[in-house]
Amino acid sequence: MSASRCTSAALVVAAVTATCLLPAVPAFAAGSPHIRFSQPYVPSIAAGKTGRVVIVAETGGDPALSSSFRITAPERTTFPEARFYWNGDRSGAPCTLSGNARQLTCDAGTRAGFAFPAESGTRLGVLVRVDADAPEGTTLD
Question: Structure pTM?
Answer without folding.
Answer: 0.71
